[in-house]
Design goal:
There is one protein chain. By secondary structure, the chain is an alpha/beta fold. It has a single domain (about 30-200, about 240-315), classed as Rossmann fold (3-Layer(aba) Sandwich), CATH 3.40.50.1820. Helix content is about 45%, strand content about 15%. Strands 1-2-4-3-5-6-7-8 form an eight-stranded mixed beta sheet, with helices on both faces. The longest helix has 30 residues, at about 1-30.
Length: about 325
């Protein structure tokens, strides 16, 4: 019996040690991806041009003329964070904040920046989230603490442009930040939200990736990684919930998701949509679109659906 107990204790210790090491590995793997920071700028500039040809020439031309500008402020946790911004041509119809996705930066979704400025006549702010682009920070915040920085950018943008109609439009991790922000107490000029293929919670997204990429269940690796994240960065995967924040959101929101998305599973769309029980909401299922591919697959429909949603939101 003593030998059995000794063996069981040793086995338990070995499992705990291995799960702890695996948790640390997963936390680093998920929250500190190699593609990030200033060294990753050229890759993302090329990605922006592949998504919308001519975007970088457009960006560089406006910057050379002094129309497109950069600004840096201090983020919620003391790190410098960067954003680019553009005034509308002519009289502005509002201001949009475009929030990028995981391993991306402010360059990647220039197609949305161009849509808002050139098609809709909006001023546009497009920040680098912490750890990406020209913003600093210890690791990706997966939208949860990023929402505080987006809220700061909303204040900065309002201070510059003085609009009374602001929309927050995020893709993937940026969509999660948008949904997570939507449940906070916000100034009245933040009037609408557009989320494109965001996840319902960080826990559910990581559990999905763990299953599809590593064929592993959440316990014990994800549980251990969650503990590591709480210790290092002050937040947990389950508390980082779009669904919980959406339950408090009473402002208009458009939900977009490709029905062929396997990275953030299509099932997250319905969970997010159902969680918003207050105020106006719309859903658009982008047929045949994979992850973050809805605009590329249906550019005209995407543009017109966002335009119509904003016109509706303006009247509410």
């Amino acid at each position: 019996m003593k030998r059995i107990l000794l063996f069981a204790n040793l086995l338990c210790m070995a499992l705990c040690t291995n799960s702890c090491l695996a948790g640390k590995y997963m936390c680093n793997y998920a929250l500190k991806p190699e593609n990030h920071g200033p060294a990753d700028i050229e890759r993302t500039r090329a990605k922006a041009d592949s998504l919308s040809p001519g975007s970088i020439a457009w960006y560089d031309g406006l910057k050379a003329q002094g129309i497109l500008k950069d600004t840096v402020i201090t983020g919620y946790n003391g790190y410098p964070i960067h954003a680019a911004y553009l005034p509308a041509e002519g009289k502005a119809q509002g201001t949009a904040i475009v929030v990028h996705g995981y391993t991306d930066n402010h360059y990647v979704f220039l197609y949305l920046v161009r849509m808002y400025r050139d098609e809709f006549g909006f001023n546009v702010f497009f920040p680098d989230l912490q750890y990406f682009g020209y913003s600093e920070g210890p690791a990706a915040q997966m939208g949860w603490f990023d929402r505080y920085d987006v809220e700061r950018w909303a204040e900065v943008a309002h201070g510059i442009f003085r609009d009374d109609f602001m929309v927050i439009h995020g893709v993937s991790m940026g969509a999660a930040a948008t949904m997570m922000m939507s449940g906070d107490e916000l100034p009245p000029y933040v009037r609408a939200f557009v989320e494109d293929c965001g996840y319902s919670s960080v826990w559910e997204q990581f559990a999905s990736v763990l299953k599809s990429s590593f064929h592993l269940p959440p316990f014990p690796v994800l549980t251990s990684a969650n503990i590591v994240c709480k210790h290092r960065y002050g937040w947990g995967f389950k508390e980082a919930s779009s669904v919980d924040q959406l339950a408090k959101c009473d402002r208009p929101m458009l939900f977009i998701h490709g029905d062929s998305d396997s990275f953030v599973p299509f099932s997250h769309l319905q969970k997010n949509y159902d969680a918003k029980v207050l105020g106006y909401k719309e859903m658009w299922v982008s047929e045949g679109a994979v992850h973050a591919n809805s605009y590329s697959r249906h550019p005209k429909e995407y543009t017109e659906r966002v335009r119509a949603f904003l016109e509706k939101a303006r009247t509410l």
